[in-house]
UniProtKB/TrEMBL annotation:
Superkingdom of the source species: Bacteria
InterPro entries with a match to the protein in the record: ExsD_C, ExsD_dom1, ExsD_dom2
Protein name: LscZ family protein
Any Pfam family: ExsD_C
Domain Antiactivator protein ExsD C-terminal: residue ranges: 244-288
Length: 289
């Protein structure tokens, strides 16, 4: 039995999905592509339904604010579902962009970097729309599940990339020292010290790569047996009612989801469960209609 571990998020889940595919793709490309394409394909309509409104916002918001908005979880969920920003959304965005920093600084507008779009804007999510269900519930749930199944996978990848960069830097210093020895006395690093560091880093890299490979293989094996994440979703009700989670970690949320179609008040329990684990946005409102 896998116990739930504390969820810590360095990125939003769209970034994690991109990173995860990058980590896994060289291990078993065909299997990984198939698994991702079932529910997490990054395809969306090239005709951006919000193009006109984005042009309006580009004239009213500074560039940094607009870029932050377009990369926010709040906006990406709409983009991947082809959901249009409403007039209320537009009013809310403009109102947030004009909040003074302090009560006394009427003319000093909120710094673009200070606007937390995702947790400031409100969103109503119809769970009966399978695309909304995927974007707002299943994707973040998947990343949380990964963090419990293979808690070190993202950390190992980051360590691997950092070590690869460090090895490259030491290799370059070694080449430079061999061709043109430093006249600094004493040198920052002697050739023998550089070789020792390189050997140590390469050994560490092999260990990390081996651990990462095992994590990826474990994840692929478990993913293929977890129907919650390996079934193509075309209808929310059929998906929720006909699928049972293999992992005990997913049983509580699945019990809640199963109740929502007939007991709408359980939508609030869903939000509580997700919010406790930082898997939804503060102003999300879940409905079934």
């Amino acid at each position: 039995m896998i116990k739930e571990s504390p969820y810590t998020s360095k990125y939003h889940y769209y970034d994690y999905l991109d990173l995860l595919k990058k980590i896994m793709i060289n291990e078993d490309k065909k299997t990984v592509d198939n698994l991702f394409d079932l529910q997490f394909s990054l395809f969306f309509n090239e005709n951006n339904i919000n193009e006109k409104k984005i042009k309006i916002l580009s004239r009213l918001l500074c560039r940094e604010s607009l870029e932050d908005l377009l990369h926010s979880t709040w906006f990406l969920r709409k983009k991947h579902c082809s959901v249009e920003m409403s007039k209320d959304d537009m009013h809310e965005i403009l109102a947030l962009a004009q909040i003074p920093k302090t009560p006394s600084s009427d003319l000093s507008l909120e710094s673009p970097s200070c606007i937390d779009w995702s947790n400031s804007l409100s969103a109503t999510i119809n769970l009966n729309d399978h695309l909304r269900l995927i974007q707002a519930v299943i994707k973040p749930l998947f990343i949380w599940w990964i963090g419990n199944i293979t808690p070190d996978i993202f950390v190992l990848y980051e360590k691997k990339k950092a070590l690869e960069l460090q090895i490259t830097q030491y290799e370059n210093i070694k080449l430079l020292e061999e061709k043109q020895p430093s006249h600094i006395n004493p040198p920052f690093l002697s050739l023998s010290e550089i070789r020792i560091k390189l050997d140590a880093d390469k050994t560490r890299l092999l260990i990390i790569e081996d651990k990462l490979k095992k994590d990826i293989q474990q994840l692929i094996t478990i993913w293929k047996t977890e129907p919650i994440f390996n079934i193509k979703i075309t209808n929310s009700l059929d998906y929720i009612k006909n699928i049972n989670p293999e992992s005990e970690l997913l049983t509580p949320i699945w019990d809640i989801l199963n109740r929502i179609p007939n007991q709408p008040e359980y939508a609030e329990k869903l939000k509580e469960w997700l919010l406790k684990r930082s898997l939804c946005l503060k102003n999300d409102k879940f409905l079934w209609y």
